[in-house]
Design a protein that fits this description.
- This protein is mainly β.
- It is about 0% helix and about 65% strand.
- The chain contains no helices and ten strands.
- The protein has strands at about 1-5, 10-15, 20-25, 30-35, 40-45, 45-50, 60-70, 70-80, 85-90, 90-100.
- The strands form three sheets. Strands 2-1-5-6 form a four-stranded antiparallel sheet, with no helix packed on it.
- The two termini are about 15 Å apart.
Length: about 100
């Protein structure tokens, strides 16, 4: 059984016990979250497709930890103008573990 969910403008495939990497959530470790924007549910071949979301379906997740991804270096340069800038960025993510998929 799996479900496709939409959260913060991105779509994720959620299966029970799987860890998903989402953009940073302002929740503490161990906090529960209920995502009700379920687009599709596949329950052993019985597929429910929402328009836009499946009514009564939700995915329960638990926050595992928050971390930073590896650094991305952005280098700006203009030839013959003595202009160069180096900027680094580390995106923050949160790992969440799928506890349960509830269907209608």
């Amino acid at each position: 059984m799996y479900a496709l969910v939409e959260y913060k403008g991105k779509q994720f495939k959620a299966e029970k016990g799987v860890i998903l990497q989402m953009d940073k959530l302002d929740l503490e470790k161990g906090a529960a979250l209920d995502i009700d924007t379920v687009i599709l549910v596949n329950n052993d071949g019985n597929i429910s497709i929402g328009a836009p979301y499946v009514k009564g379906a939700s995915v329960k997740v638990v926050v595992e930890d928050t971390f930073k991804d590896k650094k991305v270096i952005v280098y700006k340069y203009k030839s013959k103008k003595d202009y160069h800038r180096t900027i680094g960025h580390r995106q923050q993510y949160t790992n969440v573990r799928v506890e349960d998929i509830v269907t209608a």
